[in-house]
Amino acid sequence: MLEGKQGLVFGVANHRSIAWAIAQGLxxxxxxxxxxxxxxxxxxxxxxxxxxxxxxxxxxxxQDEAQxxxxxxxxxxxxxxxxxxxxxxxxxxxxxxxxxxxETTREAFQTALDVSAYSLTALARKAAPLMEAxxxxxxxxxxxxxxxxxxxxxxxxGVAKAALEAxxxxxxxxxxxxxxxxxxxxxxxxxxxxxxxxxxxxxMEAQVREVAPLRRNTEPAEIGDVAVFLCGAASRNTTGHVxxxxxxxxxxxxxxxxx
Length: 259
Fold this sequence. Notes:
The chain has helices spanning 18-28, 42-49, 65-79, 106-132, 156-175, 201-211, 220-231, and strands spanning 6-10, 32-37, 56-59, 84-87, 137-143, 180-187, 242-245. With 259 residues, it is an alpha/beta fold. The protein has a seven-stranded parallel β-sheet, sandwiched between helices. Helix 1 (18-28) crosses helix 7 (220-231). It is globular. It starts with 5 loop residues before the first strand and ends in a 14-residue tail after the last strand.
């Protein structure tokens, strides 16, 4: 499905990362990829990249403009253009995911919104010329139902995800004339390194398994499959959407099994 396509994946940290599941899916569909990493997980990401044909890696802190510029410069040197961009980035200080949203500090709010939401816009702006040179492209980001509904302790991350989803719509509008599509995947709870920082995560996971229509949790590979769809020709007329991959949990009006 993606033979001959070139892509960038932001957010791989280890083998449990959603970004890694997506990278495996894209590579399995024929795409050649560049993976970015934070310095602290560089060795891990480099070893993972060795398992993907033709993949390369580069450090990138999305709050560092120089590193972002270097990643896209390398992308242009390696690929000559860009077809796909995966944004699987989110961060909030640990203390902001404890207690109540009311207690969120200005610093924590700014950090969460910058890394988790604004970075999509910053990366899309850099990617647009490279995608336009290839006749268009696809950008996919990761979100969660906490953008629309209250999940205790998700706090400022829910606000950041709401901003991210609004950004998807505005970017889809701005980039549509360039044949660049922008969509989001809203996954159910998945055991990632970031998820472990959310108080009560295991209870969230159990709740989905007990009451979601499909009565099971989301597997990372299922996210990869949907990302392949959103990056491929089969979704060529799909943009500005949030696609749920959460066993149907988002349709429920009440998270209780009353049967």
